[in-house]
Write a structure and sequence with these properties.
binds heme C
């Protein structure tokens, strides 16, 4: 009785560690590395100084929702927070 309980808790601990490692791997393999940054050019320069949420509303003036959906359909269903992924530095 005692040993089964111990085995069970060891198993739960291993499962816990595996889950943690999984989450960490997931976070480290997130888009960041390949995600293109907000480019420094005439189209985007004014977006660097603004509040993120204000700037994000302006993206769709040029990047239409259809275009954005097309480029992101394999990545995520929710792309509203552009600057969360496309960093400004
Ligand atoms: C004034 C028009 C305009 C606005 C506003 C604009 N963009 Fe762009 N953006 C462009 C053009 C033009 C390109 C180059 C063509 C393309 O890749 O679609 C581009 C390219 C990009 C790229 C690709 C860069 C690369 O390295 O390949 C990213 C990422 C991007 N824009 C993100 C954004 C985000 C995020 C916003 C809002 C914060 C935004 N853009 C607002 C016109 C604009
Ligand atoms: C969850 C992260 C994420 C969010 C949110 C996001 N993007 Fe992206 N975006 C990416 C990744 C990753 C790529 C590269 C896709 C690829 O090359 O297959 C990309 C590609 C792009 C490109 C094309 C760049 C190129 O080189 O052709 C543009 C333009 C762009 N995103 C604009 C936007 C805009 C505008 C928004 C907000 C409406 C937005 N993104 C939100 C992750 C994101």
């Amino acid at each position: 009785m005692h040993t089964t309980k111990k085995k069970k808790s060891i198993f739960i601990n291993i499962a816990f560690v595996v889950t943690l490692v999984g989450i960490l791997l997931f976070l480290f393999s997130a888009p960041e590395i390949t995600t293109p940054q907000l480019p420094r050019n005439d189209d985007h320069n004014r977006l660097f100084a603004m509040d993120k949420k204000v700037a994000e509303k302006l993206c769709v003036e040029c990047h239409t929702p259809e275009e954005v959906y097309e480029t992101h359909k394999d990545i995520t269903a929710s792309t509203n927070r552009c600057l969360f992924c496309h960093r400004r530095d």
